[in-house]
Amino acid sequence: MLGSLIRLHFHDCFVQGCDASILLNDTATIVSEQSAAPNNNSIRGLDVVNQIKTAVENACPGIVSCADILALAAEISSVLAHGPDWKVPLGRRDSLNANQTLANQNLPPPTFNLTQLKSAFANQGLNTSDLVALSGAHTIGRAKCSSFIGRLYNFSNTGNPDPTLNTTLLQTLQALCPNNGPGTNLTNLDLTTPDTFDNNYYSNLQSQNGLLETDQVLFSTSGADTIAVVNNFINNQTLFYEKFKASMIKMGNIGVLTGSQGEIRTQCNFVNGNSSSSSGLVTVITKESSEDGIVSSI
Fold it and tell me: Based on CB atoms within 10 Å of each CB, which residue in 70, 108, 156, 173 is the most buried?
C-alpha cells in the first residue's frame, strides 16, 4: 500500500492543488476524479484514508483535513519503506469540488517522453530536478502490464520493442504480459529492492531496467540534462533523500486551500452536508483496484 499512498498524494496535488479533490465520490453535483483515465482502476488506498480519517475524527473532530492526511500518509509511507522522513507542512483545507477534466489533462501517463514529462511538471511549478527526484518514488510499488505493454511489442507504433529496454527484462516482461492479454498482471517497479525506499531505482535506469517509459527516458534520452541528476543520485543516496524530501514538500504546497477557503471534511469522500451515508464514514469504495502502487510519472 505504501507506493499507492504516495501516488494518491501526487495525483491529488496535480489536479487543482493538494486539496483532497481526488477523494470525492460522484454525486449529483460532483464528477469524481476517480473515473479519470489516469485514476480509473488504478488508484488504491481510498479505504485506508477513510480508516485514518475515522480514527482522527474520533480523537479530534473537525480539525485535520483529508488533504493533510494524504500528505502525512505519503511521508509515513516513505518511512515505513525505510526511506527518508520529513516535517510535513500542515494546514491544508479540503476542496468543495473535483475536476475530472483537469485530472485527464494534468496527470502524465506512463508513455510520456521527457519533453512531455518536463512540461507536465513545469505546469505545476516543478523543475527538472524535482521531476527526477519525485520519479524516485518508483523505488517501491508495482505496475500493471497495461502501463508498459507498448514497450514490449509495439513501441511508438514501430512494431518492435523499445530499444532502451534491457533485453533480459524484455523477455521476462513478455512472459508476464502476453500481447493482447488482459494487461492486469503486476510486476515490481524496482527489480532489485521492490519494497525498500532506496536509490536502486536510478541504478536500474543505468542498466536499462526502468519499467515504465517515463522511468527510462530520464536516463536514455540523448543529451538530456536529467542524466547527470540520475548519476548523482546513483552515487549518493543521501543526496537523493534530501532532494526527494524537498521536492515532496514543494509538491505538497501546490495550490493549497487555507484560512476560510474550502472546509475540513467530516468524510473524505463527500463535502460536508452531502453524504450518502447516514452515519460513520464511507468505507466501501467501488473504484479500488488490485493495482499496487503504480505512479503515472512519480
Answer: 70
The catalytic residue among 7, 9, 11, 144 is 11
Three-state DSSP state, 152: helix
**Residues making up the binding site for substrate:** 108
Binding positions for Ca(2+) are 12, 15, 17, 19, 21, 33, 139, 190, 193, 198
Dihedral sign (CA 194, 195, 196, 198): positive
Question: What does the DSSP assignment read for 88-109?
Answer: -----BB-S---HHHHHHHS--
Q: What is the CA radius of gyration of the chain?
A: 19
**Domains in the chain, ordered, with CATH?**
1-141+189-252 (1.10.420.10)
Cα gap 94→271, rounded to integer Å: 8
Is the separation of the CB atoms in 213 and 110 below 8 Å?
yes
Q: Which three cell numbers stand for residue 173?
A: 516482461
Confirm if 248 and 134 have CB atoms less than 8 A apart: yes
11 part of the active site: yes
Average pLDDT per block of 10 residues along the chain, 298 residues long: 97 98 96 95 94 97 98 98 98 98 96 97 98 98 96 96 97 96 95 97 98 98 98 98 98 97 97 62 40 43
